[in-house]
Amino acid sequence: MSDVPKQRETGQEFDLEGFLPYLLNQAAEATSRSFQASYKAEYGMTRTQWRVLANLGKFGAMTARDICRISHIEKTKVSRAVAALEAEGLLQRATSPEDRRAEILSLTDGGRRVFRDLGQRALAYDAELRKRLGDGVATQIDAVLRSIAAQGDPDVTPGDD
Amino acid sequence: MSDVPKQRETGQEFDLEGFLPYLLNQAAEATSRSFQASYKAEYGMTRTQWRVLANLGKFGAMTARDICRISHIEKTKVSRAVAALEAEGLLQRATSPEDRRAEILSLTDGGRRVFRDLGQRALAYDAELRKRLGDGVATQIDAVLRSIAAQGDPDVTPGDD
DNA sequence: TTGACTTGGTTGCAGATGCAACTAATACTG
DNA sequence: CAGTATTAGTTGCATCTGCAACCAAGTCAA
């Protein structure tokens, strides 16, 4: 950690604008932010809430823990998002019969309705974005991003979303 | 805003895992987080602080406003990061002679030292990541991400980092 | 010069987050 | 079955962030 293998200062200089974490963040923020308007303005939802809802909408009922695993969102965040969504009547909890610690989460009818609405918007937004990027890129980008997300750093704790 | 053009529910279903904002966030968080250890553990710096420092290190003295323009980080965030970095003795301010509202920011020797150190680590981290991605991808990804960051959404406010 | 408007930066405040500590239910192990 | 270690979720607390309101210096125009 502290034994940087004697890099000559004259080696190469750091270029912020070519630094992947930086570029990824810029791109991620730009897109998330612009789509954010959809769930924030109309439903007063948080990014995390939208994601939790999206996961439940997409994969069906499951526990908070499953959501953490699938989405890599930290459990605290999920916990609070679930509480908020429940308060809004968008999702329900049911103690798992097999493990009374776990709660099976599922969307209510209202939740599903919101999911359908936002899902359609997301689809439209995504399509538009990909169209601008061009087919060639659009088809490759997913795999690349998934790969980066997975590798990020091999030897580091799970982290969150 | 509320006139979703009659999308048949039966059209196509929303696939969270193919949603660019989602994928980008996963990738961005994964990389940023893992690199975060470098500046957080050793220098107790924040992501924003690291970015401000990186910008100053890379582009030299400039005003907070310039940093906002270049990095798209929101001005409040920059303001606080600058205050923190100054408190740590990593940067200095000097009232601009031409415009006394503006402050020319520049790294101190200590700041430059930290920049060199973190810059080298960033370089190493980035190189490793790109190596794993493979040359083909690595050379294209930058342009794509920049394009996404720029387009994100054409008609939306500047936003932040 | 005066008064209205813009611009560089800071601050107040209400959220949103991360991390560690904590509760409750389970799973092991002898 | 007791006793300890795990695991699902929640909560306290100390930041970090976003947005709007707010100064102070500048600009512009009458």
UniProtKB/TrEMBL annotation, chains A, B:
Pfam families in UniProt: MarR_2 (PF12802)
Gene3D superfamilies per the UniProt record, alphabetical: Winged helix-like DNA-binding domain superfamily/Winged helix DNA-binding domain (1.10.10.10)
An example Gene Ontology molecular-function term: DNA-binding transcription factor activity
InterPro entries noted in UniProt: HTH_MarR-typ, MarR/SlyA-like, WH-like_DNA-bd_sf, WH_DNA-bd_sf
Coiled coil: none
GO BP, sorted A to Z: response to stress
Listed transmembrane segments: none
Annotated HTH marR-type domain residues: 17-150
PANTHER family per the UniProt record, alphabetical: 4-HYDROXYPHENYLACETATE CATABOLISM PROTEIN, TRANSCRIPTIONAL REGULATOR, MARR FAMILY
Name used for this protein in its record: Winged helix-turn-helix transcriptional regulator
Species per Swiss-Prot/TrEMBL record: Paragemmobacter kunshanensis
